[in-house]
Amino acid sequence: FFHLQKKRRAATARRQHLKSAMLQLAVTEIEKEAAAKEVEKQNYLAEHCPPLSLPGSMQELQELCKKLHAKIDSVDEERYDTEVKLQKTTKELEDLSQKLFDLRGKFKRPPLRRVRMSADAMLRALLGSKHKVCMDLRANLKQVKKEDTEKEKDLRDVGDWRKNIEEKSGMEGRKKMFEAGE
């Protein structure tokens, strides 16, 4: 018994140690990824956005403004083009996923209604014009005469139930019921 408990404790401790080691590894990986993203961002900014140097003369400032406007226009066009491409690809993805869904055949089935149908109508629906045999299920049944059973006679003899209630109502009726029970 104690041996099993020691094994369980050892397994639990090992599991906890592995879990903490995995968490430590994950934390270091996340930190490395964040640092790599920051370095990539700095490199991109250094490449595409050179430091701004303001010229002293008015003409140089106007030329700088014209260059900046041209750059803004080109970046805006790029952004618009990428947005259009993104919309186009998302539309294609939706279409393909719809086709995949259709190919799988998982359609929502409509609720079915119960329809009363005779055997002839059912055979006609299944077999079409080939069906020529008439299936009258009641045609070959035997005729059975109703015989009076004892229960039915007893029910007829009881008569009107209201009379029975009126006789048993009040103290007189209770007295009769008590005397009948003895």
TrEMBL record:
The gene is Tnni2. Belongs to the troponin I family. One of its GO terms (molecular function) is actin binding. Troponin I is the inhibitory subunit of troponin, the thin filament regulatory complex which confers calcium-sensitivity to striated muscle actomyosin ATPase activity. InterPro entries: Troponin, Troponin_I, Troponin_sf. Keywords: Acetylation, Actin-binding, Coiled coil, Muscle protein. This is Troponin I, fast skeletal muscle. Binds to actin and tropomyosin. It comes from Chloropsis hardwickii. One of its GO terms (biological process) is cardiac muscle contraction. Residues 27-106 form a coiled coil. GO terms for cellular component: troponin complex.
